[in-house]
Amino acid sequence: MLSIPALSPPISQPKTLQNPLSKICKSQYQTERGLQFDVGDTFFRSESATGRDLGVLSAAVYKQSNGSLRVLDALCGCGIRSLRYLVEAEADFVLANDANENYKMVISENLSRVSSGDERRWAVMNSDANKVMTECYLRKDYFDLIDVDSFGSDSSFLRSAVSAVKFDGFLYITSTDGFSSGGHRPHHSLAAYGAYVRPMPYSNEVGLRMLIGGAVREASVLGYHVVPLFSYYSYHGPIFRVMLQIKRGKIPDNSNYRYISYCIECGNSQAFSWDQLGEMRCSCNTNVPRSLIVSGPLWTGPLHQASHLACMLNLAEQWGWISDSTGRNLEKLIKLMINESDPNLPFGYMKMAEIASRAKINSPTIGAIMDTLHEEGYAASRSHIDPNAIKTNCPMTECVKIFTELQQHSIR
Ligand SMILES: C[S@@+](CC[C@H](N)C(=O)[O-])C[C@H]1O[C@@H](n2cnc3c(N)ncnc32)[C@H](O)[C@@H]1O
């Protein structure tokens, strides 16, 4: 096993976060994508497998186009991600770190089982993730991919993680803070991600945009900017995950880091740039006081990069990962994400139930409304977040008319 001599021992006790789900598994072997590993007494959730699949596919795409892959799994639990980056993405080196010293044996045993004697390909550390990443940055020991799988809304890892990733490298980050994305703790989201978030009908997409926005802010402090490669919401938690590419150069002036608004009166959403802050008003010109709910600043650009997702899908097909006996269907998920990447689609989604309620009718089928929107020249896609929602650049008022016409047509 490689030692990391330049890293000094922890000066103080690493900050270990509380596990909000209080789900500690007993010693046992698990299997994921055919790989067997011990979870011991570590924190492990089998429900996070899809998030791990997507991370591995993305890492493998990086390795294929760059030729090498060094990964830092900064909060690794039992080391399942490290294991999968090594075996499936064929990483050249993985540093598996978890602050909990009791996990060391389980992580090392899991990694040694698959490395067939080549223990120069991995190392295990038990330190605070911020300390590890800061020391890597100070040593200029940058990683191609850093995976930060933290609990809650701990954004304190963002700056050190951004600084320890290579330019054009990948950063995979997580939030499990559904209260903030739901707009129930605006001062908390402001502290964690710099975004004052209020309740919006598409709160789970707001959760992804809040997380990307937080990374935009931290990267910008360091003179960098980020490009989202994919964004994934999982209802098991909820969990928000985004894979970002770290780019040299500050955030552009006309960037997609803005405020978003939702009009309670007409149901339309809009994005406002910083120079429009004093002029925020819905295009329906309602005179209803406080009709506009405003949140931000958040990421308002595309949630995914279609070309990257297409490479991931290609690999998933080659590896036979398209669908499996556990009910996971990566093909459906990645294709949905590719559709959502259409640059003509705005942020947010409209729930079918909200459109139907505004039209005062029962909802038509989602297939019928999608066909009509496409026929009328609008960009439209389903959402990977909510199966009963659509993303479209058609305003809510027009969607309501289309719903009504579809119903009248079906009655005739
Ligand atoms: C969500 S779990 C990781 C799960 C793992 N990535 C997986 O996919 O199974 C978060 C882990 O972070 C560790 N942790 C908490 N605070 C930490 C810190 N400050 N530095 C490093 N690890 C930390 C916990 O011990 C826990 O194992």
Automatic annotation (TrEMBL):
InterPro entries: SAM-dependent_MTases_sf, Trm1, tRNA_met_Trm1_C. One of its GO terms (biological process) is methylation. One of its GO terms (molecular function) is methyltransferase activity. Keywords: Methyltransferase, RNA-binding, S-adenosyl-L-methionine, Transferase, tRNA processing, tRNA-binding. The keyword Thylakoid does not apply. Belongs to the class I-like SAM-binding methyltransferase superfamily. Trm1 family. This is Uncharacterized protein. It comes from Cinchona calisaya.
